[in-house]
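Long-time lurker, first post. I've been practising inverse folding by hand and with some scripts of my own, and I keep getting stuck on stretches where the structure tokens seem ambiguous. Below is the full token string for one chain I'm working on. Before anyone asks, I'm not after the true native sequence, just a reasonable design that respects the backbone. If someone could post their per-position residues I'd love to compare against what I wrote down in my notebook.
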């Protein structure tokens, strides 16, 4: 790669580390600052931080690559994501912001569930933290895989060196600045992704005479939209749209709603966030579609479809711009890894260590333990990422389904149903996780395939978790008076803020 591209990347790396240092000096004196930025994050940073940490490397690599494999069916996934994100802003964000503060200033999702039922170090807290750590380790490995593929494809470095560089920079600024560093770097990274996903498909489109030529050339590999619509199946559409269900249970996304400075700012964040997401998803789909046509037209040998954005960046742009586009991919990858590392670390620190500690630990020590947690999760995820055969989209889809089924129904019922009980919550989490794992791995079909080959595992997982939570809650003793009172106080705050 030309020197100019390396200069662009070096500037990007230095900027991320500088932000981490700034955040270190301003927000990591106590655990609340390290985990939630002191609940003082602006709506602009909240919106782009939520979007960047959500979309990650699969936006620039996984989603365009899916167009090669799934064709226009990929658009159903995009539609499901847009609907799910909008519903998350409308129904979860305001209530969660109010409730987590009213519930004795809950700092993490497990902490919120614990205080939601007026308990201390309860089973629901331990179970939730365990699921977060396990699934986020898998989820984080997906981002690290993307980093390894990027450095191997774009820079000619070994896959393993790519893993180390990606993890090294992310861990450095996350360790330094905690939540504020993650949110501020996400904001910058979101801006870079936005520009890149407009620029790449537009420039790549210029290699064709018109849209008709592009579509006809792409049709040599993928079915035209007319044929795709004619071959639609109910299960296929449901599986794709169901990606949107996952939003309600993604800790690294909904923690942004807990940290925004006020409930009234959520509407601003929603408008910014949904506009950003709509443009970037369309750009990712367009990159994949133009990529299919370009490969067919030029006979380009593309070993890994998930690297089409990288290929376009290298062959269509000036080296200086190419370096900026490589930074966009790193931005997407790093934004999600850092968010996931911080949430995992928060669960290890606030929900595991503090729960089992025999004595009260001071704030400075807790922040130090949080930093150790970041490093530990990053190390395990890197070891998992050494298996380079892993598909980014596959890893993300499994972890996304796991969180969506385990926590999605619980988050919604916690915020909208005062009758839910602690026993119902624990049963719902376990039922959701077990269902997802069974759906992914049990070879119960005639050809030895798992049920996930027929229907995306988040659908049965979400349904089973919801039903089990409702049934068990009805069968167990009603919540105490204080729990019900806290629920109605939070609800009142949301109504007052929206009036």
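-- Answer (accepted) --
I ran through it position by position. Result:
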């Amino acid at each position: 790669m030309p020197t100019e591209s390396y200069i662009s990347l070096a500037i990007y790396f230095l900027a991320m580390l500088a932000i981490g240092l700034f955040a270190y000096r301003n927000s990591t004196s106590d655990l609340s600052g390290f985990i939630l930025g002191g609940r003082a994050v602006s709506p602009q940073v909240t919106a782009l931080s939520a979007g960047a940490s959500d979309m990650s490397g699969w936006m620039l690599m996984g989603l365009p690559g899916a167009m090669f494999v799934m064709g226009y069916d990929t658009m159903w996934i995009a539609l499901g994501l847009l609907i799910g994100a909008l519903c998350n802003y409308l129904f979860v964000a305001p209530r969660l912001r109010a409730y987590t503060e009213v519930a004795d200033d809950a700092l993490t999702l497990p902490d919120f569930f614990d205080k939601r039922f007026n308990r201390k170090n309860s089973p629901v807290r331990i179970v939730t933290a365990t699921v977060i750590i396990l699934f986020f380790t898998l989820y984080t490995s997906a981002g690290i895989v993307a980093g390894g593929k990027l450095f191997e494809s774009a820079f000619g470095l070994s896959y393993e060196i790519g893993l180390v560089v990606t993890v090294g920079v992310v861990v450095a600024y996350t360790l330094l600045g905690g939540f504020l560093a993650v949110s501020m770097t996400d904001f910058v990274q979101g801006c870079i992704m936005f520009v890149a996903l407009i620029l790449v498909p537009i420039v790549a489109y210029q290699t064709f005479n018109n849209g008709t030529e592009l579509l006809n050339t792409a049709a040599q590999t993928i079915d035209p939209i007319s044929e795709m619509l004619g071959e639609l199946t109910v299960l296929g559409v449901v599986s794709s749209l169901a990606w949107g269900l996952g939003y309600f249970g993604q800790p690294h996304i909904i923690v942004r709603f807990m940290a925004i400075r006020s409930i009234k700012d959520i509407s601003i964040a929603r408008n910014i966030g949904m506009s950003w997401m709509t443009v970037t998803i369309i750009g990712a789909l367009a990159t994949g579609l133009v990529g299919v046509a370009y490969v067919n037209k030029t006979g380009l040998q593309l070993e890994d479809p998930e690297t089409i954005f990288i290929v376009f960046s290298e062959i269509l742009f000036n080296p200086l711009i190419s370096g900026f586009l490589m930074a966009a991919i790193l931005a997407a990858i790093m934004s999600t890894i850092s968010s996931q590392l911080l949430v995992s670390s928060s669960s290890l620190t606030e929900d595991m260590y503090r729960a089992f500690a025999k004595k009260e630990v001071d704030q400075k020590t807790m922040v130090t333990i949080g930093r150790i947690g970041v490093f530990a999760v990053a190390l395990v995820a890197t070891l998992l990422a050494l298996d380079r055969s892993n598909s980014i989209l596959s890893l993300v889809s499994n972890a996304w389904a796991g969180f969506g089924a385990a926590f999605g129904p619980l988050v919604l019922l916690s915020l909208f149903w005062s009758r839910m009980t602690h026993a119902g919550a624990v049963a719902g989490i376990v039922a959701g996780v077990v269902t997802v794992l069974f759906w992914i791995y049990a070879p119960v079909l005639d050809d030895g395939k798992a049920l996930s080959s027929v229907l995306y595992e988040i659908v049965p997982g979400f349904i089973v978790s919801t039903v089990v939570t409702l049934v068990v809650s009805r069968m167990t003793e009603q919540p105490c008076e204080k729990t019900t009172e806290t629920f109605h106080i939070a609800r009142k705050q949301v109504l007052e803020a929206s009036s």
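A couple of notes from the structure itself: The longest helix spans residues 159-205. The radius of gyration is 22 Å. Happy to go over any region you disagree with.
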